[in-house]
Each structure stands twice: as C-alpha cells, then as structure tokens.
Amino acid sequence: MMHAQVRYGPRLIGHPTGTLKGALVVMPTAEIETLHPLPGEPSPIFKRAAEQHAILVKTLQYFGVDVTVLEPPDRAPLACAAADLAVCFEHGAVIMRPSALNRSAELARIETEFTRLDIPIGAHIAPPGLLDGSDVLLAGRTAFIGRTKRSNAMGRAGFAEIARANGYEALEVAIDPSAPSLRSVANAVASDTIVIATNRVDGAAFRGFKLIELELGQEFGAGAFALGERRVVADLRYRASLLALQKNRIAVEAIDLYDFGKGGLVPSNLILATKRS
Known about the structure:
The protein is α/β, with parallel strands linked by helices.
C-alpha cells in the first residue's frame, strides 16, 4: 500500500457534510439493463435511467454545485456508480479498487479527470486490496468502512491507514449481505446525525451519533446524499424515509431515481463529492 498525505493544492472535503461545491457523476450506459435487479424488482430501463440522471445533475446545479459529468466507457453497467471509484479527503483523493475488477478502465479515466480538475491524488488502494468507495462513509471525524464480501482485509486495512493519516478515526462496520453497499443503508446527513437502516447495518458502530432509524421496507431511503448540513437529495420512492428525515429537521430534495433503485443504486452511489466547504 503506497500513500502520501498531500498538503498543497485545492482544499477538497473540508467537512463530510459541509456545503457541496463540486461533484463528479458518470452517465449511465445501456448496459445498466443487464444489472441483476433487487428481489421483486423489474430490470432497469436505460432510457428512463438517463432521464433521471439528467434531473439529478440539474438538481445539483440548482444548488450551486459545479458538476463534472463524464461520458461512460463502453459496456460498463456500473459506470454510473461514480462513488465506488474514489474517496476525497481535505488534501487529496484516494483512488479505490472496486470489487468489480472489470472497472479498471473507469479508474484510469477518473485519474485522468482528476488531473484535469487539479484534484491531487494522495493515495491508491493497491492490488490485491479491494474496497469500493460506496463502502466508505465519512461522518464527523470518523471513516466507517463496510465489512462485506465485496472488499478484503488488505483493502480495508489500507484505507484505514490512509484515513488515519488524514485525521480520521477508522472503524469497520458489519453489513448485512443483502445490502448493496454501506452507503446504500447509512449516510451522514449532519455532523452529528446518521440516517440508517438498522436491519441492514450494525447501528451500535455509530455510537455517539444521533440515528434516524428507518422502518422495514424503507432501507434504501438511507441512501440519501448530503448537499450540506441538514439538507439532502433523496429518492422520492421511499416516502416514509423522507418523512422521517423531515421530522428530524432535515431538508429533503426528492427526485425520481426509480430505475437506479431497481438495481440497488442510491443517490450516494451516483455522486462523488469532490469539494465541500
């Protein structure tokens, strides 16, 4: 594992729930229709997914976010899951090594794009380490790392070392095998608050945070993505989860992401935060 703590260049993520200033997204490909849908769900429809993704981009832009939209590589069903590819800290980005090893071309493209955007690359998850960026949740000064079959001990330990070098405590979290990723079932919505599906992830790991616990059937409503402190963009499909967030004084921008949700993809999978104040 090679890593270096970068102390120059643009300030990236000042705080995990700070106001979102920059984000990177990748357009879906027609191969999204080949994703295995969640149990009981129909397959995603590419045309609808493309329309929904465009609305997601416009929503981010409406809130003043500088959005970089990348064309996907050919035959890449998971290309739209941009958050798998990297995790940004304050002084540099970590290039992840997703469990779907056929995504190596996507990693090369994201490195090229980061160079163009003047985003320093501070570290890589090196082979044979495996860890998806969507299995990392930054909250407060803690980096929660999902312990799943998608990653391995070397990838998790390597990222924990990088997180500590960037001033974060690192903590592994057990996730139910049915959860597509950590950030599909838990996300920080404020510096002290996490929305969570407690039947899919170990809530005890988040001791010290206020938990907004979602009811059965609303688990993926926890995939809401923080636009800033106490403001999120969320999939309108999970209406009870939206109400739970609003009752806890979280402002919600709800949009239709149904065709991504069919494959277990939530807002926090689709958006890679590159700059927060």
